[in-house]
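Trying the structure run again after the queue cleared.
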Amino acid sequence: MKNIFNEKIFLFLLILTSGIVYASAQVSFTVDAPRQVIQGNKFQITFVLRNGEGNAFQEPKVEGATKLYGPATSRSYSSQWVNGVSSSSSSEEYAITYRADKAGKYNIGAAKVSVDGKEYTTKPFALEILPPDKTAGASGGSSGGVQIDNYDSQSAGKQVGANDLFIRINLSKSSAYEQEAVVCTIKLYTKYQISQFMPTLQPSFNGFLIEELPISPSLNNVEHINGQNYMVAELKKCILFPQQSGELTITSGNYDVTIVQFESIRTMFGTMRQPVEKQLTVKSNSQKINIKPLPAPKPASFSGAVGKFSIQSEIKPQVLKTYEAATLSYVVKGQGNIKYLKAPQIQFPAQFDVYDPQNTANASPSGNTVSGTMTFEYTFIPQYVGKYEIPETEFCYFDPATKKYVTLTTPKYDLSVAKGAGSASQSPVPNGGIEQKNSDILHIKTGNLDLQKDHASMVSGFAYWLWYIIPTIVLVIILIYYRKTIKERQNTALMRTKYANKLAKKRLKQAKAYMAAGDNAKFYGELLNAIWGYLSDKLEIPVSELNKENISSVLEGRGISNETVSMLMDLLGKCEFAQYAPELADSSIEEAYNKALDVMNKLETIKRK
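Done. Tokens:
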């Protein structure tokens, strides 16, 4: 009885908690609608109410379209229990179907709904109704042109016309000034779905500096061009800054494109469409732009800034002391070729130690240009107490909008330098100049220096000709050695014999590792491989033809003592036996390893025929 009572309390608390979570869920009212539709097609607008029960729904007026039916209302609920926390949500949708009647761009107002006496509205949105395709004269044969919303017009085997798929380079301007921002967009226009896309040759932008814009290529937009509707994807978008005047050309690019057509097949369930891929190679257009030179005469303070800018400057700290670093910040703000501005020339007093400016660009693409700031920081150290002046500094830029040069000026700074800790690296002189105190720089001596004139000819001296003779001899020696080395390397057998001992010692390293690990079987196997490989290289005999008989015969023929030959034959026999029965070997592995080294050292006396 007690357990039943506890279960009822638990269920009551669970229902109460769920109700609290549901009540606290945020109510929202949104709209889901297409951005573009084609005239004559049906489309649907759905208004979604979340976490609330709506009443008195009011739909907005949709101009340029006829309402066919709706609103069709549907509701859904969901709840979950995670880590002891209950949550639930609800969704209520109002779906209305329309037919697009008149091409144009329309602003659709807000829908309204009431929840518990409180009114909620959706955000207004824009709808574009595109004209239908003009099929007359289009590619595709007698059945009419290809249409993006009609799979029957995209039948497999149909020839893909130049107006069905193309790539176009578009510029925001047909002419511009040097350093003036120009937006370049490369777009793909297609009436077919794309399954694969691969650039094989990118367009070149010779004569431009490029600022890339972030994009996400996808066929998510529709454009109406020359009476036809196309699915459009941006392949590349960048801001160009021309660096020279004249006619500049953006060359075309090549692309491998795989489109999807549809083949009609008959089945027991009726006619069905099956996708069929078709590979094409598409070449974009090239684009030319006329770049005008900047007007002359250019102001003396102009250093290449083009756009629209403002400037400000500041000195920190305000109180200056000798031998303590200070900073003059020069900040240019605006839009244009701001990332490529040059540091202004500021006239600091000669009594200041000045370091090269630090440039910091904080700019990014914005609209059709680049906006942000460019900061130049000059670090300087006053050396002497006194009053100093940093004069006004001019910054000049060219404004393409007004086609005029604009000169801005930073204020003059009157500086008072107080005494600080430390000592000067330079000392003043009465005339206001600076006297250098570096010990390695001496004054120019004047007066009679007892100089002598020597008219002896250098060419007649032997030392002069040594500068030519010695390098010539060294060069000849290098050439002789180089030719000898090349000749030896071309002789494969000679190189194998020459480096046989070196390679054998490398092979013995692995045997030594097995010896240290106490793995006798692998040790003898690796030792045997090292000896056979060494003999093959040294005696110029392929490994497949090596045996004890021909090894013994070759060694005796080359003057190797019988004692050394016997030692080698004995070593080979013990290694072959110990490889398969290491526990029965009559000598230690260390003794075998040392004997192998001894034999190889003795065989190094062999000279190649």
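Helices lie at 2-24, 462-490, 492-498, 500-517, 520-539, 548-557, 562-580, 589-603. Worth checking whether this holds up in the mutant runs.
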